[in-house]
User: Which sequence fits this backbone?
């Protein structure tokens, strides 16, 4: 049985990315927003891997590793910031965090 | 001969006093100020003795100052007999005045500042005198103008002093503009600014070119040396401390124009029309200033107009081609006018600041040394033999007579006026009843030895200084007279003619008679019949008012020049052009960016999701664009 064609993977990746964008735009909890970002990153990872497999080249895999590392670091820093914000402001709603503007 | 040491010493004095003076004590400041000037004088004496009898010029080159295209200007000093005379006068009289200032300025604030500026002036004056090309001369020329400005406005808290400094600077600007144009034209015509090259090439130049250069140079000289029509700054410059008036505005700086024209004799020789202008302006200045001097009541202003008048004599001499006589009068004038100013300063010092002749009188008994030295200066200025002024003024008058008896007649009349106004000052200040105010009466005291010492030295010079030009004495000693000694300098240009002996004696007799008549008239008007002067003033009516208001020259300049320039500057250049166009443009740019910012600011909502929305929109837009382009 032959593997599914590239377009399936790309379609899945696009759907996941779209979900991520929608979650980022519409969710009111900053943790969920954060998770949406991770979803977008991994959607991109999926298309990288699919292309790498298709063209039999290792570059895509390399990029994926970098993205995973950066995402891990981002998660560490981001969660710490969220924690600090929650302690100080007592809210996780990004709409209520507009102080820098005023 | 290490000529550079001569200006370098005062420069060092300026730097030490200017940078550290505030921390040095008054004694140290005096030592540095007077010492640097005295050392410069001693070095000048050394150069003078080492110079020997050479009649030529010697140039000391140090380095190339400017080299661009065909123009090459060197930092080089030029030494000949004319330079030597100027060096001796500037450093000699300068040292005496420095010494005098230690007494006169002892209780003034800014003591170190005063001496720093005085040394700075000396430095620039020596550069001016020593320069071997016109550009370096111009550096000194501007430098003395700057020092003059700084010293006139020394008491800058007094607005009249600050105004006077500004006026001197601005009026000199007009002259300097002419001078710089002259230098440019000289470069265009001769492709060089060095004295030797320029003078050598002057012979082949066209008369029109030479006339233009000479006239432009003379505009500069008229500004610096206070000649009609640019003399108006000098009387106001009396706002400065009296030693400054003596050094800068009587003995040295104001003679820079005379020196420059004498130095450029080779250029003027090829421009007879320019020489006639010089003579006419000189004579006019001598006469007008003397008439104004008749009615001044401020002792320093009498002397100031006298200086303008005497400078006019020097230009008269230059104009008739008697450069030697002009330099001779420059030298003797430096002696006796410095003496008169310092003695006047001593009077002012003694009276605690009183300068008005109407509130003096009878001072001869109270401050005898000052009185005696002032009278010596007055006799020398009036031109009575055997004092210095007699010989030099007589030589000018003789040379003027040889050119035209009319010049001589006006010169003679001016000599009588000179004698009248200076003896009027003497009689009003030192003779008759005391008209002192109580405070001045209480303050009255003879000046300290550090002030009377220089007065004595200058008094001696005012007596004997003219003897170097006395042919009788020179004949006895077998030495050349001053004029003959200086003649080689002007060899290419001089039209110096020896007058017949009988004529010379006759003219001398006339000038002495004129001086005596002036003095006698002053005696009659101010001592014998004091009420007469008032009656005379009333009798002269319009003319008296005209002279007293200085021919309304300041008012005319104010209406014709200052007011229009101010109006254009304020109405058009400031309010329309600067505030309207230039500021308007700048403000418009600022307003525009602010408005753009206001619009763009709306995007900065502080709302995380609106930012994300913009990002998504942007990404979609880019993708759409790429899609559209790919198709």
Assistant:
């Amino acid at each position: 049985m032959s593997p599914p064609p590239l377009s399936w993977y790309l379609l899945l990746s696009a759907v996941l990315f779209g979900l991520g964008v929608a979650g980022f735009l519409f969710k009111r909890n900053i943790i969920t927003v954060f998770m949406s970002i991770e979803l977008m990153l991994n959607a991109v990872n999926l298309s990288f891997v699919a292309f790498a497999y298709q063209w039999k080249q290792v570059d895509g895999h390399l990029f994926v590793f970098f993205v995973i590392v950066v995402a891990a670091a981002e998660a560490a820093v981001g969660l710490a910031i969220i924690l600090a914000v929650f302690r100080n402001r007592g809210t996780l709603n990004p709409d209520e965090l507009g102080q820098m503007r005023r | 001969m290490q000529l550079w040491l001569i200006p370098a010493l005062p420069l060092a004095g300026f730097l030490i006093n200017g940078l550290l003076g505030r921390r040095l004590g008054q004694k140290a400041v005096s030592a540095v100020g007077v010492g640097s000037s005295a050392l410069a004088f001693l070095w000048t004496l050394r150069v003078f003795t080492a110079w020997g009898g050479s009649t030529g010029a010697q140039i000391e080159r140090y380095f190339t100052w400017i080299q661009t295209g065909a123009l090459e200007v060197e930092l080089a000093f030029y030494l000949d007999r004319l330079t030597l005379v100027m060096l001796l006068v500037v450093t000699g009289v300068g040292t005496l005045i420095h010494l005098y200032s230690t007494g006169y300025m002892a209780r003034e604030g800014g003591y170190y500042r005063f001496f720093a500026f005085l040394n700075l002036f000396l430095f620039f004056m020596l550069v001016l005198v020593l320069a071997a090309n016109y550009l370096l001369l111009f550096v000194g020329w501007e430098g003395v103008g700057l020092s003059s400005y700084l010293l006139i406005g020394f008491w800058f808290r007094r607005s009249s002093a600050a105004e006077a400094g500004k006026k001197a600077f601005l009026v000199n600007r007009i002259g300097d503009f002419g001078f710089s144009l002259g230098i440019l034209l000289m470069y265009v015509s001769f492709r060089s600014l060095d004295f030797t090259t320029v003078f050598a090439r002057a012979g082949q130049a066209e008369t029109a070119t030479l006339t233009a250069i000479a006239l432009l140079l003379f505009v500069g000289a008229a500004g610096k040396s206070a000649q009609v029509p640019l003399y108006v700054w000098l009387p106001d410059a009396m706002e400065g401390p009296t030693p400054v008036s003596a050094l800068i505005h009587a003995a040295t700086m104001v003679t820079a124009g005379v020196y420059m024209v004498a130095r450029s004799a080779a250029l003027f020789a090829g421009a007879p029309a320019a020489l006639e202008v010089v003579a006419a302006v000189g004579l006019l200045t001598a006469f007008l200033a003397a008439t104004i001097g008749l009615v001044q009541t401020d002792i320093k202003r009498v002397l100031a107009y006298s200086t303008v008048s005497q400078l006019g004599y020097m230009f008269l001499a230059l104009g008739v081609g008697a450069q030697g006589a002009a330099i001779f009068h420059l030298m003797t004038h430096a002696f006796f006018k410095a003496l008169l100013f310092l003695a006047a300063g001593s009077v002012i010092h003694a009276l605690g600041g009183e300068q008005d002749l109407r509130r003096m009188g009878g001072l001869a008994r109270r401050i005898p040394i000052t009185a005696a030295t002032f009278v010596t200066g007055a006799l020398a200025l009036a031109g009575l033999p055997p004092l210095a002024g007699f010989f030099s003024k007589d030589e000018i008058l003789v040379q003027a007579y040889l050119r035209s008896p009319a010049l001589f007649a006006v010169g003679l009349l001016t000599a009588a006026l000179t004698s009248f106004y200076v003896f009027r000052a003497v009689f009003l200040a030192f003779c008759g009843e005391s008209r002192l105010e109580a405070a001045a009466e209480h303050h009255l005291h003879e000046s300290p030895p550090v002030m009377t010492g220089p007065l004595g030295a200058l008094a001696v010079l005012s007596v004997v200084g003219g003897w170097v030009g006395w042919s009788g004495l020179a004949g006895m000693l077998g030495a050349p007279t001053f004029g003959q000694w200086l003649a080689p300098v002007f060899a290419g240009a001089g039209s110096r003619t020896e007058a017949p002996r009988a004529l010379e004696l006759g003219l001398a007799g006339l000038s002495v008679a004129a001086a005596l008549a002036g003095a006698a008239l002053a005696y009659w008007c101010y001592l014998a019949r004091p009420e007469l002067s008032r009656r005379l003033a009333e009798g002269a009516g319009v003319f008296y008012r005209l002279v007293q208001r200085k021919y309304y020259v300041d008012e005319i300049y104010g209406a014709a020049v200052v007011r229009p320039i101010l109006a254009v500057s304020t109405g058009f250049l400031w309010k329309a052009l600067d505030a309207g166009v230039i500021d308007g443009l700048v403000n418009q740019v600022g307003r525009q960016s602010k408005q753009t910012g206001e619009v763009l600011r709306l995007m900065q909502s502080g709302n995380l999701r609106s930012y994300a929305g913009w990002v998504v929109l942007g990404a979609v837009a880019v993708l759409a664009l790429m899609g559209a382009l790919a198709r």
